[in-house]
Specification:
This protein is α/β, with parallel strands linked by helices. It has twelve helices and 21 strands. Helix 4 packs across helix 5.
């Protein structure tokens, strides 16, 4: 365990959270006209926050608010104190920009050191970092955490799969840090090249994140490389990777509560939901300096529990992200997340987890088509076998998710691979609405 606060009594953690929350609220009220105006509109003063439950009195913040103040309008320190800037890609509008003071960088390094310690990383390890470097927070966030624990970092960045495999083998990497879909792609390429995983590679664990992942995909990655799977969660608006991570004893992710206060709300009403119930994740950073946000609505769907973990950590745990409020598909009136479909596929015989979901309209009715690559062991010209596999997946989707979908089995490696986050969904209904 990297920091003893991770196993402190909950009373200690919550006292620290309340102290930091009060300080954060006072600072945003004093330093940010945007929040000062929101407080006045709601009739709230910083001194009204006397308990953690009072956080419900505070306003939400959304990505739209960040874009409205692009690029630096919500910063709470002068630019002379900002030492790093990151931003989103901005593919759907203005990018969201985040700044970091030296103190923010130290917090980021600290939480990422906790992440790599959970994955068993020590100064003796070599970490192959295949996350992209640049404005995206993944590459540099991982990089700094590895250096904090004293391990050796290989800053491979994204893409160039064959070259990355060569470096992993030649340098003797023991920890792999990439997106889970890219990890599977790497395994696929290594297998095609005739690699012997146990002989050619020395990997013992991986730190994976940046995209929603089903239990089936985690097991597939873990099995493909013969390693422990550790999931890391984070988002650039809050800090980057390092908000939470899974340990060796549980699939749930420990939230680093001394730096991040989390809530789960009903995305439609904004009201808190009971512990264990899924809803939208809302995060208030408690120690940020350059960009203070109150109750940031992440759009990610998950649940939390305060049940202690067998690893000894006492901080609450969150479920893997099951989807986003904005990528939930509504098919014929049924709500379904891509990760639920992925879970069904992971239990099917003869197929891989390389798939694509295509939503469209047929007349007034929703139509869902799922393209799935068959495994190399399946003979594609065996029509009867292919038909049986297809029917069994369609039946499983109907029985488990109550959706009628058309499954199309396609040849191995025929779906385009991504070097970063996998593109799983093509919703043609949205483009039709825009035209």
């Amino acid at each position: 365990m990297w920091n003893k606060i991770e196993s402190s009594p909950r009373e200690t953690i919550e006292q620290l959270q309340l102290s930091r929350l009060k300080d954060t609220v006072q600072r945003v009220y004093t330093l940010t006209p945007f929040y000062c105006q929101k407080f006045e509109q709601s009739g709230i003063k910083p001194e009204d926050i006397t308990s953690l439950s009072d956080i419900k009195k505070l306003p939400f913040t959304t990505k739209k608010d960040l874009r409205a103040h692009y690029p630096f309008g919500l910063f709470t320190v002068p630019m002379s104190e900002v030492v790093r800037i990151h931003s989103s890609s901005g593919t759907t509008g203005k990018p969201t920009v985040v700044g970091y003071t030296q103190s923010d960088m130290e917090v980021w390094d600290e939480v990422m050191a906790r992440v790599f310690t959970m994955a068993g990383t020590t100064a003796e390890d070599i970490v192959h970092n295949g996350y992209g470097y640049g404005l995206f927070t993944g590459g540099l966030g991982m990089h700094n955490g590895v250096q904090k624990v004293g391990a050796t970092i290989v800053p491979a960045s994204s893409g160039f799969t064959e070259r990355q495999l060569m470096l992993m083998k030649d340098f003797g990497a023991t920890i792999l840090a990439v997106t889970p879909s890219f990890a599977l792609h790497m395994a696929e390429v290594a297998k095609k090249a005739g690699s012997d995983y146990l002989k050619d590679y020395k990997l013992k664990a991986g730190v994976f994140g940046a995209e929603p992942t089903s239990k089936g995909l985690k097991e597939e990655v873990s099995k493909a490389w013969g390693i422990d799977y550790h999931e890391v969660y984070g988002l650039s608006e809050i800090i980057g990777p390092g908000v939470a991570c899974s340990c060796k004893k549980s699939d749930l992710l420990h939230v680093f509560e001394d730096h991040f206060f989390v809530e789960i709300i009903d995305p439609a009403t904004g009201e808190e939901v009971p512990e264990g119930q899924r809803g939208e994740l809302v995060i208030t950073p408690l120690t940020k300096q350059a960009l203070l946000l109150l109750r940031y609505r992440t759009g990610d769907i998950t649940s939390i529990t305060k049940e202690p973990c067998r690893c000894g950590r006492t901080m609450l745990r969150m479920e893997s992200i099951v989807g986003r409020t904005d990528d939930m598909l509504i098919i014929g009136g049924v709500n379904v997340y891509p990760s639920q479909i992925e879970h069904v596929i992971s239990n099917a015989y003869g197929v891989t987890l390389n798939y694509q979901i295509i939503a469209d309209k047929k007349g007034y009715l929703d139509k869902l088509e799922i393209h799935i690559e068959v495994s190399d062991e399946i003979v594609c010209d065996n029509v009867a076998q292919m038909e049986n596999i297809k029917k069994s997946i369609q039946a499983a989707l109907l029985n488990n998710l109550y959706i009628n979908a058309t499954v199309r089995l396609v040849e191995p490696r025929s779906i385009e691979r991504s070097m970063g986050k996998a593109v799983r969904i093509i919703d043609k209904r949205k483009s039709d609405e825009q035209n």
